[in-house]
Amino acid sequence: MDDFRYLVSVVIPVYNVEKYLDLCMQSLLKQTLEFNKMQVLLVNDGSTDSSEEICKSYAEKYENVFLYTKVNEGASQARNFALDRAEGRYIFYLDSDDTVKPETIKSVCSFFDSVYDEVDLVTYRIIQYHNGRPTIVHYRYMTLLETGVYDLNDPKNRFITQTHMNVCVKNLRENNVKFDTIKHEDEKYCCEILRRKMKIGFCDKGEYVYNRSNVNSVVSTQFSPEHIFETSMKLYEDLFDSFPGKVPPYFQGIVFNDFRWKLMDGKFFPDHLEGDDWIKANKRIDSLLSRMDSNTIILHPSVSVEHMHYWLKRRGGCTVFNNPVSLSVCCEGKMIFQVKNLKATKSVKDDVTEFSIKSPIFFHLKKKNIVIRRNGEPIDFSFVDSHTDKEHLEPKMLYPQFTVSTEEAQNAEFTVEINSISYKI
């Protein structure tokens, strides 16, 4: 174990978690690794509830549990404070409202020993739990299938996206990477360590139990665009700019995944901005997208068809090809979508019938390329385009929409003409 006093140091920042702290500590006591081989560093970050008293009871009972109390500065500063006092060969991180399964620490450390010279960071499974029940397993485990070392320069590993603290790292003492005092600090920390060797270790034994029931967690309270947009964009711009040429696919995947989940959760668009600031913010988004491979968007395992085409439209590089038989979308020489028929949905209200023609094709067309006809005569239509419209902060399927009187709709033939080729609706 070299000259380290412990095999592992477990860093736990503590802030107002009296409801969860005992469960967190008990999960360490139940580890298959002997408890006295761990150094547990509890950093009370200015708690105002009974968290400090709970920490003190463990520190008084176990000589390898250390309690430090400091003024509230956030989880990053608490972790950095603990890093300066870590005496273990390896460092684990555990949030005080989370737990780890019993076999975790021993299994991960044993695997790390076998690949010590190859990697600087080993990850293991993290599963989100809400009210004690596991939620959907993260898509990264479609790539991380078995214990081993994964090359982050390999495009097939672009969606590992290690952004949480379900990690074990080497204790490099004065050369340890420290946490930045920003949101996304976990993500930045992992990126800085991984880019040293562009490899990551994965141990398929053990599990980080991520508690999403805590409504007071940072993710639950501070991840709104007003709080996070500028920080996120600056982090990703700096990351991309640190690569003078092509951005490695792994880091493209990190950024695109952030865009993707925030869009789905309604936390992406900087709707607090107005005018020129709104326009500039969107240009920053598009600039990052322009440095991503199309496959980073197309192959992402958790992006819906509608959102995929939305992002590809913003990135650029897609073309619609059509003939009398079919319509296709091609991106950089690859056909990514094809349809033979266009269908319209209709809704009738009073004496008006509204038609909507929904297809990913329309993400990549301009209104001037489309003519809608009723019985051969052109009719007016609106073209819903949501990504620059602040009234629609969630991108919806782009589509032509038109209304006619219910009487006019009876027995009428509607066609849509795209690039001068007509298709029956």
Short description:
The protein is α+β, with helices and mostly antiparallel strands. The chain has helices spanning 21-29, 51-61, 75-83, 104-114, 185-197, 218-222, 225-241, 249-264, 275-290, 294-298, 305-315, 406-409, and strands spanning 6-14, 38-45, 65-70, 88-93, 99-100, 121-130, 133-134, 148-151, 167-170, 199-211, 318-322, 327-331, 334-339, 344-349, 352-357, 370-374, 377-379, 382-384, 399-405, 414-418, 421-424. The longest helix is centred in the middle third of the chain and has 17 residues, at 225-241.
> What's the number of extended β-strand segments?
21
- Give the C-alpha Rg: 26 Å
Determine the mean pLDDT: 91
> What is the percent of helical residues?
25-40%
Distance between the termini: 72 Å
What is the fold named in CATH at topology level of the largest domain? Spore Coat Polysaccharide Biosynthesis Protein SpsA, Chain A
Looking at the overall shape, the CATH architecture of the largest domain is Alpha-Beta Complex
Q: How many strands, what sense, and barrel or not for the largest sheet?
A: 10 strands, mixed
